[in-house]
Design goal:
By secondary structure, the chain is an alpha+beta fold. It has 3 helices and 3 strands.
Amino acid sequence: MKKLSKVQLKQQALVLAAVTALEQQALQQLPGVVQCWFSLEYEAFPGSLLVRLQFSDDAALQAAQPQLLLWQKRFSGLMLKRGVVLKDMRKHLVFTCLSPDD
């Protein structure tokens, strides 16, 4: 893997800070949350950013699904505080039971 540029490192730090803050909130407020993780293509940032909030099982996932829009808004707000505007917040956060290894 090639070394990241200064701009890419800055983008990664912004996303990591927002995702960490979101994960802390989710662990406290949503039952069954395991972790939060993200993927992105630096050349297409922020459009390529996808954050996944992982749940322990399908029951916890289904119970949290009605709150998805609220959490998408929270994440969009966290990114906005860091100077990144997400044009369509619904594309950037999903609830899942899959782990990063799956």
